[in-house]
Amino acid sequence: MREDLSPLVPLSPAILHILTALAGEERHGYGIMQEVARQSEGQYKLGPGTLYDNLQKLLEHAVVEECSRRSAADNPRRSAGDDPRRRYYRLTAFGRRVLLAEVARLEGVVRHARLRLQTNNPRRAS
Amino acid sequence: MTRALYQFLLWLHPPFFRQRFGEEMLWIYDESAATHGVLALFTDGLASLARQWVMRAGTWKLAVAGAGGLLEILMAGFFVMGPAPTAHVAATQSIEDPAQFSGTWKGSLRSRPIELVLAKEGTVWRGEIHFQSPDGALRSAPLEDIRVAGDSVHLRVQVDDSDMTFSGKLVPGTLGSRLVGALQATADASDDLISYSTLQAFHA
Questions:
Q1: CB–CB contact B198 A83 (8 Å)
Q2: Which of A113, A122, B22, B136 has the most crowded CB, counting CB atoms within 10 A?
Q3: Above 0.90 for ipTM, yes or no?
Q4: CB atoms B44 and A86 under 8 Å
Q5: What CATH code is carried by the domain that includes residue A95?
Q6: Residue A125 falls within a domain, yes or no?
Q7: Domain of A34, in residue numbers
Q8: Among B130, B114, B112, which residue's Cα sits nearest to residue B202?
């Protein structure tokens, strides 16, 4: 059965970056911000307000979930001296499908744009 | 000084958002004020504040109702000679009927089914929670201290040594209302305790 992802896809740039940051591993809020800045080579900087506003939305739609304490304790990046205010988040199986659907949509857009640019290439006067 | 101002900015956010993310946002402020710049963090915080109150907390409904009432008064002043209608009628119509909470709410919590049953007996709300524990067993527990106000509900539930609170609100939708909220532990009893989890349920 095909899932209806239309209320979520297309994703906003902030959500796309957040989900991409969480696709590899679970991260805390500041980790997500740093990963977004890294993956966009500093072009997209996410503030904490924007991050948590979007995380709230993603948690409500079960796209992202907070890691349980046991799972977070298993995280090799988490040390004994970790700040207790940190909470870790990860993609759910549904969230992974949402991200895959968005990637497929974007691939289609890029393919279409390339095709249009090739066919409508104005001939230069010789 | 700027940290205290940022803390104040966080305090201005809606209670639900503040309780859930306030500490984390302050922690990020502590970590990134030097690298991100205080101005950028404040701008982002102000934008978040506006978004939370206008888009998320439903304040826009009251604002639209108020503006509609005001427009009605102004229109009456221009076109109708006679007493102008009052604005507060339109504003109070957006408050949800508490009776809408009655019934069975089915949803999922961490990919496992969960059911909340709420009923009003006289002036007192009673209820039960049914859920599947991680080992697959079906569990039930009574809901305690149920408080319904407007479109919000708060309650407490105790399962074994886990003491949790649920805060949620009704979110209207095309297919009926949803109950959206968060289940949060009030004490660290064990590792398996739900520290925090969002819950979305539909009227069955």
A1: no
A2: B22
A3: no
A4: no
A5: 1.10.10.10
A6: no
A7: 13-119
A8: B114
